[in-house]
Every structure is written in structure tokens, then in C-alpha cells.
Amino acid sequence: MSIEVGRFHDLHEAELAAALLRSAGIRAEVADHHLIGMDPLMQRAVGGLRVMAPDDEAADARAILARVQAGEFVSDAPDDLPSAAGAPGRDAGLALGVLAAPWAVAGMLGARRSVSARRRFAPLAIILLVALLVGLPLVLRIMA
Asked: What is the pTM of this model?
């Protein structure tokens, strides 16, 4: 029979804790993860996500989770992921998206007297907006 060894407020944290326990040889699982995956608002209703382990492995599982909470597995090594702060396409794409959004909305809404023109140009406005938001950051990244 399985008993609760930890309770988490986030699905990702619960899955990471269960994976850590499984890597230590403990048969851990996240209870109700399918329910939370379908309806994240149910997370509060069920009181968070429970990480469950067999009775005979529960003490070891709680000890490992206590070591995690104490920060024993924290590393001082820097991350090897590149920083997104210096990406030139991100800021340019955001600026163009903000500038193009009113134009696209105006193209979709149009004037009352030109209903047929509005319907003709709405798909063009959407296509151009997507092209600006997707294509320009890619071009700027290639040029950089």
C-alpha cells in the first residue's frame, strides 16, 4: 500500500520529486496527476499533488525530500543555457507586434460602409501579422 511522502502545489514540482525518488530506487508516483492535467483548477480542490511511495520505502523517500528542502543538492555551477536577454529578434519582434496589432484589428473590423472590403482584407492582415511576428525575429537572428 502506498502512503503520502510529500505534497506539492505544482504538477511539475511533484513530477520532479517523484522522478528524483525513482532515480534513488523508490517506487514513487504522483497521485491525481491526470485530474490536475485535465483541469488545473482542481489542484486546490484536492489539496495539492501528493507524491506517494510504498510503506516500506516511505521513510527513505521522506529523508530524500527533506534533503532536497534543505538545499543539499543545489550546485554553485552556473547554468549552461544561453541568456535570452541579449536576443535581438525578441525585442524587435515584440515592438513590431505591438505596432502591427492595431493595424490588424482595423483591417479585421474595417469601416461600416465597406463590409466586403473588410472581409477581403482580414485574412491578409492576419497573415501579415503572423509573418511579421515569426519571420522578422528569424531574419534578425540570422543576420546577427
From this structure: 0.54
